[in-house]
Design a protein that fits this description.
Order of helices and strands: HEEEEEEE
Strand order of the largest sheet: 1-7-6-3
Radius of gyration: 19 Å
Distance between the termini: 71 Å
Largest sheet: 4 strands, mixed
Shape: elongated
Number of helices: 1
Number of strands: 7
Strand content: 35-45%
Structural class: alpha+beta
């Protein structure tokens, strides 16, 4: 048997499995558009996202930029320590994350907000940065 050939096949198989796992681990970036309903005066989380790798390493603090100002409320961001729930890969470990909040004002109507979020990657990661994700959020204040 050619042990070098077997070792190379095993390494290629492991690389494929890890690549597939990495794609599933953090494939939940915000979509280009979101729609949410909120009551007058209510505060809701528009988006919550941690930033860590399939190897259970922190990938750094997500970035946030508000691209348009809402007319009927306020948008804010909160950087958090996200604890991975039990039963998931990296369970009970803590990683940096981000919550995007919307605080509705006292006037009902429709608000449109545009914001950009980015998820950096660690320097040693072979997976490139996912880049910035621009999100247009339509908020109906009732």
């Amino acid at each position: 048997m050619d042990t070098t050939g077997i070792a190379l096949r095993i390494m290629a198989f492991i690389a494929c499995v890890l690549s597939a796992s990495a794609a599933q681990a953090q494939a939940t970036y915000p979509p280009p558009t979101l729609e949410v309903d909120v009551a007058v005066g209510q505060k809701i989380a528009i988006w919550v996202q941690p930033n860590y790798s399939v190897l259970c390493r922190s990938l750094g603090q997500p970035t946030f930029q508000l691209d348009s100002t809402p007319a009927l409320g306020e948008v804010s961001s909160e950087w958090i320590d996200y604890t991975v729930p039990n039963g998931q890969r990296c369970e009970t470990m803590r990683f940096p994350g981000l919550i995007v909040w919307y605080q509705a004002g006292q006037t009902p109507g429709t608000d449109v907000v545009v914001w950009t979020v980015g998820f950096p990657r660690e320097l040693t990661s072979r997976v490139p940065s996912s880049g910035d994700h621009r999100v247009t959020t339509t908020i109906v204040v009732r």
